[in-house]
Amino acid sequence: MSSYAEQVLVCTGRDDWSSRIEDERGGDNLAADLKELFGRGGTYSDPYHNISVLNSSFPSSPPPRTQAQSASAYLLPSFKYIPFLPRVSFDSVQALAKGYLLPEKLHPAHDCLSPIHRDRLTRKTAYQRLLLGVQDVADVLVLICGHGGRDPRCGIFGPLLRDEFEDKLAKARLRVARDAVRVQLGQAEDTTASAHARAIGDGAVARVGLISHIGGHKFAGNVVIYIPPASRTRAGEQHALAGCGIWYGRVEPKHVEGLVRETILGGRVVEDMFRGGIDSKRRLLSI
């Protein structure tokens, strides 16, 4: 796996996409807009602050005004959910980029840049107020490469693994959510991490989704498991992988029960399939 500062999961409600997701036609394409900003040669392109943009099968949250066109996105490992990105102008994309995706502090290699250039590449938290309903993510997220438009192996493995994970998670007493996240604006919500502290398996929520290409088709099936920062084990202890994203490769349906038991419930990495990982401080994990 390559290092990244943030993975942006665009909620498309679809299971597959064109080989290059930025080339998708037939409607709105938030991934293309973000790649225009953060891709090679983009306005905010920074080799020391990689933003990985992926499409996902998760559905977007219904907007407050049903006639408005909107998109949703997950930010990981920040564990933020952006429910409403109005798609009537580029303003919401800029707010997402400037308020959440740009680095808070630039790499020392940028010290030679002009003050104006450094300022343009640095996060401005004031932009966060332009995006409504942003929440901390308290759900376990299981992401499976199902990008058949890029590689047929992923198109075969993805749906099979999704079904198997949903089955085994339910048997482990997690509630598997398939519907869109519903956000009611104006409600007083405590979205701090401490508010979501819960033992995984004790009625906790898990979401299993297909995602676009993450590299390494030879490792199909590719799976990334994100454990929310406030997660605890059933024994009430801090989950050893809380706030982390764990990457696995060559996962087959027969391996899923073990991954649920060891990684999601037990906080242990399965070495045989481990491709890498990332923690909440963006440090790469290895064994």
TrEMBL record:
Family annotation (Pfam families): Suc_Fer-like
Highest taxon listed in the record's lineage: Eukaryota
Gene3D superfamilies assigned: Glutaredoxin (3.40.30.10)
InterPro entries in UniProt: Aim32/Apd1-like, Thioredoxin-like_sf
Family stated for the protein in its record: Belongs to the AIM32 family.
The name this protein goes by in its record: Altered inheritance of mitochondria protein 32
